[in-house]
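## retry 2 of 3
previous attempt timed out at serialization; input unchanged, resubmitting
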Amino acid sequence: MRAKITYFLTAAVLAVYFVLVGSRGLMLIQHGTWITVTFGVAVLILPVIGIWFLWKNTQFVTKANRLATELEAEGGLPVDELERDKYGRILRDSADEVFARRKAETQDAPGDWRSWFRLAVAYRDARDTPRARKAMQRAISLHEGKPVQV
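## retry succeeded, writing output
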């Protein structure tokens, strides 16, 4: 729940920022000189990129949460079997052990979105966010029946 609140607060702050930047860009364009129009257009590009980025991330999170809900209903969510230190941080050796099992499971069933979902969780636990995201994107694509690049 805390992550959702943080995400929505960040998205709201970004939306306000996009409106403010966009209004400044429009003010520059309305000024009418060639330099202010050029700067105004350049300033307007930033909110467009930001809105696109926010939209794509929101779609990703929504789809990943749907997969988690479906997997939970099936009883297939990965069990937290990781060892932690006294501060609650995951121990690297424990994460590596679980990751090796998840990777083998995915190699045995490369077309199963469930195994890719669990592999994404293992990547995240091993603090490899880029690979976790790619594995989750693959799980989403497999779930949606879209072709997956090898």
